[in-house]
Amino acid sequence: MATIGENLQVVRARIEAAARAASRDPHAVTLLAVSKTHGAARMREAIAAGQNAFGENYVQDAIAKMDALGTPMRRLEWHLIGPLQSNKTKLAAERFDWVHTIDREKIARRLSDQRPAGLAPLNVLIQVNVSGEASKSGVAPSAVQALASAIKDLPRVKLRGLMAIPEPTADLGLQRARLRAVHEIFTQLKQSGLEFDTLSMGMSDDMEAAITEGATLVRIGTAIFGTRKPEQGEDNIPPRPPKVRTAA
Ligand SMILES: *Cc1c(COP(=O)(O)O)cnc(C)c1O
Question: Which atom of ligand 1 sits closest to the CA of residue 81?
Fold first, then answer.
């Protein structure tokens, strides 16, 4: 089995190849290693292989790992990429560098109010839903502009751009169209005067397409850390009820 260090090399090479094929600068695409469900020991392997930026879905799981890792040689960058409820904003504001999943003004306001004075403003992205009914998370494309206007002047958060999780689909044309739609909204908002520099889209299975369509940050889990066990310890989602076995 390949090591995490080897996987990281492969992923970096994929990013570079996709960027070059799209006539883009490979350095313009940041690699976020999505470490959800993987423990601090596996993260240490990635850190030893040069990875600095990590994505986590659950606030408390992430904080447990931050504490377990202590103070590594280099400063790490922590990105919250899972849904954020009001009761977790304080911890998120205190411990993360980025939050990718802003879909309500209220959450952004709380993060701004709760960001400690000694830290740089929290970087935030608005999550856009380009998959329609299929996805519950994120704001509709038509609502992005209004949300951006509402949060762009909050003092302790810095709106950096957009994030999207297009639903997986075997239809490559549809996949590209959704990624392109996010990029179009991103470009429009930039042209309207917002200082956007970050477009977070692309996962293990669609990173090349996302880079072709303008992603500046890809969120990669499986291709670095291997397949995940069924997700556990989720902050926000109640555990699934056990399957009821009926006697045959
Ligand atoms: C889990 C997750 C990823 C990583 O997905 P892989 O397919 O394992 O690369 C990226 N983004 C979000 C929001 C995730 O929840």
Answer: 13
* pLDDT band with cut points at 50, 70 and 90 for residue 136: confident
Q: Is the pLDDT of residue 246 over 70?
A: no
How far does residue 86's CA lie from ligand 1's centre (Å)? 22
Query: What is residue 73's predicted lDDT score, i.e. its pLDDT?
Result: 76
Whose C-alpha lies nearest to ligand 1, atom 11? 219
- Using a 6 Å CB cutoff, which residues line ligand 1? 34, 36, 57, 81, 165, 203-205, 219-223
Q: For residue 172, how far is its CA from the centre of ligand 1 (angstroms)? A: 18
Q: Picking from 13-22, 44-53, 72-81, 87-96, which range would have the lowest pLDDT averaged per residue?
A: 72-81
Q: pTM, whole model, 2 decimals? A: 0.91
Ligand 1 atom index nearest CA of 34: 4
Ligand 1 center to residue 167 CA distance, Å?
11
Task: Cite the DSSP H helix spans in the chain.
Answer: 4-21, 40-48, 59-69, 89-95, 105-114, 144-151, 172-191, 207-212, 222-225
CB neighbours of 126 closer than 8 A, spacing ≥ 6? 102, 103, 139, 144, 147, 148, 151, 159, 161, 162, 163
Distance CA 233, CA 217 (A): 26
